[in-house]
Amino acid sequence: MKKYLNKDNLDYLILALGVVLIFVSIPLNVVVNHYMHSLYVPVTIIVVCYGIYVITKRSMDAKKWQDWYKWVGVVVGFLFCLVWALGLKQPSQRAYLGTGSVVVKSEKDVKQVDISNDAEGYNYILFFNPNCQTCQDTIPELLKGIDKKIYTQKITFVDTTQDYGKKLAKENGVETVPAYIYKYDTAKEYNTPVKLAYHTDNGTKLLDNKISILKDFISREKH
To answer: Concatenated DSSP letters for 112-142?
Structure first.
């Protein structure tokens, strides 16, 4: 074992561990400013850069490589690749549900609605994340021109960053926000979740037709 765990083979060992880390990081994500990034992207870039370094080092006279040159290059390369990779905007129709190891919260909050911890008895339940820009753009558009006394009788708003919201979302198959579920008075279960908008590199894309349908239902007075 000592034969392989020596200084000469250290670079190869680190490179091998890096390859393993690539596969480990594939299902993992990090959320930065409402964009979900796959961790394997920066990991792959870093491992590839380190591989290039190892090949270059081995192809030259080892005496020309001083330790401080090596580590400065590795650290600078690591930071550059990490910042660059996380800065990439990855367009997706899947807004996150408040999960992720890094979250940059928006300065604004959705203050037009009251958050519910008990959705029992409501025909319409809208799931949202207060830190999601897409939700912040969608809810005001949905409630525009509707009397609060009227829509609060029909619809309730659940925060998916809270335990109650996470549980209710999971029970009803809600994976992205903003989205709502509904049921008719005689129905026992809610219908399939309906998405109202999604995030793009050009901003929020509102699904106007679906918003209009929901708006029509929650704006009607009960008789």
So the answer is: SSPBPS--TT-SEEEEE-TT-HHHHHHHHHH
The terminus-to-terminus CA distance of the chain in angstroms comes to 81
Query: Encoding tokens for residue 124?
Result: 């319409």
Cα–Cα distance, 85 to 79 (Å, whole number): 10
- Spacing of C-alpha 185 from chain mean position: 34
pTM of the model as a whole:
0.57
Residue 96 phi, psi dihedral angles, 5° rounding? -80, 160
Residue in 94, 111, 107 with CA at minimum distance from that of residue 31 = 94
DSSP state of 172: T
Q: Is 31 left (phi over 0), alpha (psi -120 to 50) or beta?
A: beta
Peptide bond just before 27 cis, omega within 30 deg? no
If 0-12 CB within 10 Å is exposed, 13-18 middle and 19+ buried, where does residue 125 land? buried
Tens-place pLDDT, residues 6-51: 666 777 888 888 889 888 887 776 665 555 566 777 788 788 878 8
